[in-house]
Design a protein that fits this description.
three-stranded mixed β-sheet, mainly beta, 154 residues, globular
């Protein structure tokens, strides 16, 4: 399975009647209407989605992957305002992908709730690969293997 922005020829769709309820020991048939991404998306992909990527995993204090969290990319070292870019929620293996157009110096965090200051009970963590939690990336490059450890806020 490839990760990253949609490309021309990819298909995407949404289940119109979310959430889907599946009963135990029953087979369910689901029809998800899809559309093909048009060619023109390739022309605009770099500015819409970006070909600069940070990929990695969100882990708990014991090094186990955490699902359902989002990686957040900020241009502010305090990481309190609205993030510039937000990943999709992590899957069971804790992986995240952030795609954006321009390289630079950013600040990386992860949490399970968006908006405001992290609250008690929330999972939250900052990138620990540098003293100020910053990460530097050049435009068009991909950083892989980035880890963010999260802990419960008290």
């Amino acid at each position: 399975m490839a990760a990253g922005p949609l490309r021309a020829g990819d298909f995407f769709g949404y289940l119109p009647n979310n959430p889907l309820v599946v009963e135990e020991n029953k087979v369910s048939s689901v029809h998800i209407p899809v559309i093909e991404v048009p060619e023109k998306v390739d022309r605009y992909a770099a500015s819409l989605f970006g070909n600069t990527r940070i990929m990695g995993r969100i882990l708990d204090a014991h090094g186990q992957p955490v699902s359902g969290l989002q990686a957040l990319l900020y241009d502010d070292p305090m990481m309190l305002n609205r993030p510039l870019y937000v990943s999709q929620p992590t899957s069971e293996d804790g992986t995240f992908v952030l795609s954006f157009p321009d390289g630079g110096v950013y600040y990386l965090a992860a949490r399970n709730e968006l908006g405001g200051t992290p609250a008690p009970g929330e999972l939250y963590g900052r990138y620990q690969g540098s003293a100020d939690h910053s990460i530097r990336i050049r435009t068009g490059k991909v950083l892989e293997g980035i880890e963010i450890k999260v802990e419960e806020v008290f």
